[in-house]
Structure prediction request, 188 residues.
Amino acid sequence: MRTEDAVDHLIGARLAELRAQHGWTLGELAERSGVSRSTLSRAERAETSPTAALLNRLCHVYGRTMSQLLSEVEAAPAALVPAAGQQVWEDRASGFVRRSVSPPHAGLRGELVEGRLRAGADIAYDRPPVPGLEQHVWLLEGALEVTVGGRVHELGAGDCLRMRVHGATRFRCAGPAVARYVLAVVRP
Prediction:
């Protein structure tokens, strides 16, 4: 089994577990998240790799960040995670690669994530996973457009954008090359 498939199975099992903990049917979760029952079912059974937008909607419903969700499918947290041991997840449909840089820990409010978007990639989130989430986007290379509250911010290498997210956001790789950035996330 490929590593990506193993992560998809772990994520699917955790999503099913969260739904069961809340006592929701697939239909109830579909109503709460705006995601179809069939898509939820396929994601829980790992028949499809969930997209970043899908995980974002589910994280919103469950009141956790994406890093929290992904850390819940990992082994016990460590103080140091070598680069080779940092969890990488790919949204193959959109061209988004996400690496959890910080050692995950449920008791911490902050985390660091490395994001990579291939040229032309465009990811829209209809809401934050946790309302009021503070994010700092530090672009390391490439060009990136970040839309927050209807306002487009054009970032070049070295630029940093701070935002508190309450509504929709969009990340678009505006250049001809990959956009690579660090995302610092701080829960309210």
